[in-house]
Q: What sequence folds into this?
């Protein structure tokens, strides 16, 4: 009970603490019915996300991105994204998916660069922020929700590596959440279907 009371007092103090200011322009409203602006909208969302962390307006953000739209107005893309994910191995469809995913990942890379440039207490904000990026499908072509591709950046973990696991007897996805909770200082040994922490994920 005492720990909970301390959390309430800390939250109240945080509300009264002066927040950093920004000179960033106010985001302009975009019409999502126009498929040409989806990538720009993603850029806006990442900009707002970064500013929220920089200003200490929040410490936790969840962002869901949906590419289920009419064909994006990107060079080389002629079909809508959802149909392309059911590619059936078609080289043409896979090539178009690559164009879309490269455009989206370029914006994600910009988010990481922005967090790396921003400073908090003398350290890059990225070093003090865990950023988990992933998909709701391991293979959208077959609606297979196993073997999710995930990217974890920042947070003081050792990066620059690719961890792969047995596809038939895989490591539970929830293990990475246990590792992240422990990095946050939450002494949790279990989350959902986890059976430990994420093997191979170490602190820098």
A:
């Amino acid at each position: 009970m005492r720990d909970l009371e301390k959390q309430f007092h800390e939250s109240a103090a945080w509300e009264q603490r002066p927040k950093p200011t920004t000179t960033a322009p106010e985001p302009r409203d975009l019409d999502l019915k126009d498929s040409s602006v989806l990538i720009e909208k993603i850029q806006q969302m990442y900009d707002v996300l970064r500013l929220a962390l920089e200003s200490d307006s929040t410490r936790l953000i969840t962002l869901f991105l949906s590419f289920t739209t009419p064909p994006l107005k990107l060079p080389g893309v002629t079909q809508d994204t959802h149909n392309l994910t059911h590619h059936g191995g078609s080289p043409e469809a896979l090539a178009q998916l690559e164009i879309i995913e490269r455009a989206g990942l370029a914006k994600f890379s910009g988010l990481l660069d922005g967090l790396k440039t921003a400073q908090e207490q003398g350290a890059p904000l990225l070093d003090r922020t865990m950023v988990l990026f992933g998909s709701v499908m391991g293979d959208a072509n077959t609606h297979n929700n196993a073997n999710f591709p995930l990217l974890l950046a920042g947070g003081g973990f050792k990066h620059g590596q690719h961890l792969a696991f047995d596809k038939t007897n895989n490591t539970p996805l929830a293990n990475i959440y246990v590792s992240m909770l422990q990095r946050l200082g939450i002494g949790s040994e279990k989350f959902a279907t986890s059976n430990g922490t994420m093997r191979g994920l170490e602190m820098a």
Strands lie at 119-120, 123-124, 130-134, 150-154. Residues 90 and 163 are 28 Å apart (CA to CA).
